[in-house]
Design a protein that fits this description.
- By secondary structure, this protein is of the alpha+beta class.
- The chain has 3 domains: 29-131, Methane Monooxygenase Hydroxylase, Chain G, domain 1 (Up-down Bundle); 142-239 and 349-383, Alpha-Beta Plaits, CATH 3.30.70.1660; 250-322, Double Stranded RNA Binding Domain.
- 44% of the residues lie in helices and 20% in strands.
- The chain has helices at 29-38, 41-56, 64-104, 107-131, 153-172, 202-206, 294-325, 360-364, 369-383; strands at 142-148, 176-184, 190-198, 211-218, 227-238, 253-258, 274-279, 284-288, 336-341, 347-350, 355-357.
- The strands form 2 sheets. The protein has an 8-stranded mixed beta sheet, sandwiched between helices. A 3-stranded antiparallel beta sheet has the order 6-7-8, covered by helices on one side.
- A hairpin with a 5-residue loop joins strand 9 (336-341) and strand 10.
- Helix 2 runs antiparallel to helix 3 (64-104) and helix 3 packs antiparallel against helix 4.
- The longest helix is centred in the N-terminal third of the chain and has 41 residues, at 64-104.
- The protein is flat and about 70 Å long.
- The protein starts with 28 loop residues before the first helix and ends with a helix.
Length: 384
């Protein structure tokens, strides 16, 4: 708090977050019911007890292929319960501290509580959003593929800008990032890149980024300084767990090995370590050249292929559901979802949720959460 500033702890105009009385806020029955409709604490606690009984039972570890899903479920439920109880404890602690500070007119403690409540509010918002990620693969790692559209150097430079944007988002959220395939542009930028974003709910968040991204700016590659529009597509797939089987027959594959190109170390152009796999029935082509080992590149390429085949099947099912519901609000996969305008004004607009943000530099530096959160909230509303 600034020195010399007059402060009355009982006036809400100074502290709008304070309760209207001197007593801490209490949760009403209606609020409690709404919370339970979103987060069913008793049901989760019962399920955790069931899982603990199954895991402690005889013969559980005799079938390793069956243990992984249950152990994963137990970890996920335990994590949710711990986060909920920690937030609940923080609310109670802040309530008690607030009551004492108000009774004693302790300005310093009230200032500390204000900061603490802001952090608590952010924690509750993050936890609430994570509860929306209840899809089959939302908790999985994400495989992200960025491809430059038509337009040569302009589009390739835009694809590289998008890659940096997602790399910064991944870094901000404490996820791990591993490049699977990287195709540099002819003069600048990149033609395509595929990378893994590894962390809790990575796919659940990043799936909102699927679609075409449009950039409008003054071309840095045109001496006449004309405005230029560039496009790049973003595809996001879940990394499949080992217990999810995607049947791929060897006769349906064409595997080509070749020498890697571009940056990558001394092995580049000396050994045929890069691998390209073509799935003949679907026409899907994946490749990997980031590792020195041909076998490692093949394993990574197969992982991407399985994810893409699985996602393709999910798309077919969603397309059938789309026909049934005949919803005009759903945008087909691969269509334009967002525009990034750098000239004549600065703005990023998400066309699906009608959200505008003027701070383009913040967005391009990885500040995607308003768009991701807004899209997830819109999907939740549509399902109700």
């Amino acid at each position: 708090m600034a020195a010399g500033r007059a402060f009355d702890p009982l006036k809400r105009r100074n502290r709008p977050w304070l309760p209207r009385s001197n007593k801490p806020c209490r949760t009403s029955a209606a609020d409690s019911n709404r919370s339970r409709s979103i987060f069913d604490l008793p049901a989760l606690e019962r399920r955790l007890q069931e899982l603990e009984s199954i895991i402690a039972g005889p013969g559980f570890w005799d079938a390793p292929e069956k243990t992984k899903p249950l152990l994963k479920e137990r970890t996920a439920i335990a994590d949710k319960l711990d986060r909920f109880k920690n937030l609940q404890q923080e609310i109670e602690d802040n309530g008690e501290l607030l009551e004492m500070a108000l009774e004693e007119s302790d300005d310093d403690t009230l200032s500390e509580i204000e900061v603490g409540l802001q952090d608590l509010d952010a924690g509750i918002a993050k936890f609430s959003l994570s509860l929306m990620l209840d899809g089959q693969n939302d908790g999985s790692n994400a495989i992200v593929s960025i491809n430059a559209g038509a337009g040569g150097t302009e589009a390739q430079d835009w694809a590289e800008m998008l890659f940096r944007m997602y790399a910064r988002w991944v870094e901000r959220h404490g996820y791990q990032s591993d490049i699977i395939d990287f195709q540099p542009g002819d003069e600048a930028g990149i033609k395509s890149v595929t990378f893994m974003a590894a962390g809790e709910n990575a796919y659940g968040y990043l799936k909102s980024e699927r679609g075409v991204h449009r950039l409008v700016r003054i071309s840095p590659f045109n001496a006449s300084g004309k405005r230029h529009t560039s496009f790049a597509s973003v595809f996001v797939y879940p990394e499949l767990d080992q217990e999810i089987n995607v049947d791929i027959e060897e006769k349906d594959l064409r595997v080509d090995v070749f020498r890697a190109s571009g940056a990558g170390g001394q092995h580049v152009n000396k050994t045929s370590s890069a691998v390209r796999i073509t799935h003949l029935p679907s026409g899907i082509v994946v490749q990997c050249q980031q590792e020195k080992s041909q076998h490692r590149n093949r394993d990574l390429a197969m992982k991407v292929l399985k994810s893409r085949l699985y996602e393709q099947e999910m798309q077919k099912q969603e397309a059938e559901m789309q026909k049934v519901h005949d919803s005009k609000d759903d945008i087909a996969w691969g269509s334009q979802i967002r525009s990034y305008v750098l000239h004549p004004y600065q703005m990023v607009k998400d066309h699906r949720i009608n959200l505008d943000i003027g701070n383009v530099n913040e967005v391009l530096d990885g500040g995607l959460d308003p768009f991701i959160d807004g899209w997830l909230l819109s999907q939740r509303k549509e399902r109700r």
